[in-house]
């Protein structure tokens, strides 16, 4: 499939860039939103260990907006979100707003399914599932603009809400999905069951969501057995599963652009 990152004319196209770990940047015209951007890995070392490579600094020009899927410190970088909120906004699910307020961040809270306009973009939190259950209050974010639609799924497990999300918000040009299928053994949560999507599950989620392409996130940075054990052979497994399902796979390094399909069907 031919792809491009600008199909509607200079300055009017949705542009996507993968940041480090689970971070994604979405730009449309003068509007810029980053989701789960991460710089500070120090709080993660006791469990996730040392990262395999340095994380690049996140460019935060004035007016950049932040969204977070949940409060785990590999998705909510408190200092970075605070800097972003100082000149833009910080968006979260309503259940996370009190924690952000305690950190001195006046967040814009949204209920599931409640859209919010940010400049030229519309952002909507939708259901997700965390391995810790309801106490983590994880969401995914749907972002729309210029006739394009993407979803960022944080570090979700497999769940039964994919079909409802597809009915309410799909189809999607690109689904950003965790693929490390990690086995976690900490905080009293221990089971030999992946607590994030495996490569194959991520592709299945993309297919159910009606996504033309799936971009792998949340992999090949942390692997710290026995506390945090990543799946083996992630890129090859992701590609094979995507080929079998007719989903375009994107395996993009930190800081690289993520292409959009040239002709994406939208409802």
Short description:
The chain is α/β, with parallel strands linked by helices and about 270 residues long.
Explained architecture:
The structure is a single chain. This protein has 267 residues and is α/β, with parallel strands linked by helices. It has a single domain, classed as Ribonuclease Z/Hydroxyacylglutathione hydrolase-like (Metallo-beta-lactamase, Chain A, 4-Layer Sandwich). 19% of the residues lie in helices and 29% in strands. It is built from six helices and 19 strands. It has a seven-stranded mixed sheet with strand order 7-6-5-4-3-2-18. The chain starts with a strand and ends in a 6-residue tail after the last strand.
CATH class: Alpha Beta
Tell me, rounded to a whole number, the average pLDDT: 91
- Give the overall silhouette: globular
Number of E-state strands: 19
Radius of gyration: 17 Å
Q: Write the CATH architecture name.
A: 4-Layer Sandwich
The CATH superfamily is identified as Ribonuclease Z/Hydroxyacylglutathione hydrolase-like
Share in β-strands: 25-35%
Strand arrangement in the largest pleated sheet? 7-6-5-4-3-2-18
Helices, by number, come to 6
Tell me the span between the first and last alpha carbons: 20 Å
Report the biggest beta sheet as strand number plus sense, adding barrel if it closes: 7 strands, mixed
CATH fold group: Metallo-beta-lactamase, Chain A
Number of domains: 1
User: What would you call the structural class?
Assistant: alpha/beta
Order of helices and strands: EEEEHEHEHEEEEEHEEEHEEHEEE
Uncertain ranges: 1-10
Helical amount: 10-25%
């Amino acid at each position: 499939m031919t792809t491009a990152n600008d199909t509607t004319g200079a300055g009017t196209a949705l542009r996507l860039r993968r940041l480090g770990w689970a971070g994604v940047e979405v730009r449309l015209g003068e509007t810029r939103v980053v989701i789960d951007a991460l710089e500070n890995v120090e709080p993660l070392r006791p469990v996730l260990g040392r990262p395999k490579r340095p994380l690049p600094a996140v460019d935060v020009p004035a007016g950049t907006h932040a969204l977070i899927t949940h409060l785990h410190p590999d998705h909510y970088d408190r200092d970075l979100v605070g800097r972003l909120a100082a000149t833009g906004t910080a968006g979260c699910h309503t259940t996370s707003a009190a924690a952000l307020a305690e950190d001195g961040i006046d967040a814009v809270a949204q209920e599931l399914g409640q859209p919010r306009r940010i400049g030229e973009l519309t952002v909507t939190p939708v259901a997700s599932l965390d391995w810790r259950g309801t106490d983590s209050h994880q969401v995914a974010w749907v972002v729309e603009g210029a006739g394009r639609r993407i979803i960022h799924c944080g570090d979700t497990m497999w769940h039964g809400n994919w079909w409802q999300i597809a009915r309410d918000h799909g189809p999607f040009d690109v689904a950003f999905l965790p693929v490390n299928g990690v086995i976690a053994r900490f905080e009293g949560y221990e089971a030999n069951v992946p607590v994030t999507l495996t490569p194959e599950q991520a592709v299945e989620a993309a297919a159910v969501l009606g996504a033309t392409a799936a971009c792998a996130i949340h992999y090949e940075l942390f692997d710290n057995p026995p506390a945090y054990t990543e799946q083996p052979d992630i890129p090859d497994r992701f590609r094979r599963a995507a080929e079998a399902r007719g989903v375009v796979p994107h395996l993009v390094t930190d800081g690289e652009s993520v292409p959009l399909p040239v002709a994406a069907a939208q409802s």
